[in-house]
Amino acid sequence: MPIPIASLPVLVGRDGTALSAENEGLVLDLPTEQIVFTADGLGRLRAEDRTVLIELRARAGATPRVHRIDGVDPDEAVLFADTINELLAKRTDSDDVDGARFAAIRSLAPRWRHRFARRIRRGVLGYLLALIVLAVVAGSLGHWDVVIVEIPVGGISGLALGFGAYGVGDGLRERWLRRHGVAVTATRATSPGAYVYPDGTGDYRIFVHGRAGAAITAYYPPGDPADVDVPLPPFTRLVRTIGGGFLLACGIAGTVALAALTVTSFSTSGSL
User: Fold this and answer.
1) Are 154 and 171 in contact (CB under 8 A)?
2) What is the pTM of this model?
3) What's the burial of 56, exposed, middle or buried (CB within 10 Å: 0-12/13-18/19+)?
4) Alpha-carbon distance 137 to 167, whole Å?
5) Using only C-alpha atoms, what is the Rg of the chain?
6) What is the mean pLDDT, run by run of 10 residues, along the chain of 272 residues?
7) Nearest alpha-carbon partner for 104 in 23, 197, 21, 193
8) Fewer beta carbons within 10 angstroms: which end of the chain, N or C?
9) In sequence order, what are the residues at sequence separation of 6 or more whose Cβ sits closer than 8 angstroms to the Cβ of residue 146?
10) Cα–Cα–Cα angle for 224, 30, 182, nearest 5°?
């Protein structure tokens, strides 16, 4: 559907929502999601005062799914809807189409793995900051033995804790998803590296993954279909978990040894 982008305004609604036309179809930007509607799935658009309703095609007897944007300019809404509907009216293919398959929802919220990695990074930075403060205090009191040992041991321990915690946490998460998550088959989309999967509500979601293949098995937590994940192969996951556990143990051991050295050094000099 060659949509004339130059003749159509971008409809801006409440809370930063926006509806725009592209060569492939329509794009609805929401606060936490982006929905891309390809022409094959569009039924019609309805402009109702300051609201535009995007009605998808549906099979005979089924209720069409509808998406909406509120708070738009009424005149621009009428122009936008009329132009799109005029183009859709020229379509000659069958009407018996499930339009939901052509409306891909892409989550803009960070998935669990990204949130977890961010927390790990903050924890490591906090650990290293505490080491710097300890080094400054120890140096100002003349405990240079603590400073000399703390810098390499503490730095390596902090990094080991971070990488180890991520490896173990990610492995446990994948194990939980396999046992308690919802398994879906994600099929390759037209965009490179993109896969589409049903989310159990009648909608279809899209995500990007580097693994090649026409279809892959993905999992998401019950009640949160946007937080999809593709588990690693069993052997790779086992190696990562064991390696993460080893690094975590080394980081804990290094931290305990450093704490013991610090306490002993300060106690011996009578500073405690």
Assistant:
1) no
2) 0.79
3) buried
4) 33
5) 27
6) 64 93 87 91 92 91 90 93 88 80 91 94 95 86 80 92 95 92 90 87 88 84 92 87 94 91 73 42
7) 197
8) C
9) 134, 135, 138, 261, 262, 265, 266
10) 15
Token reading at 29? 């930007």
CA distance 34 to 205: 10
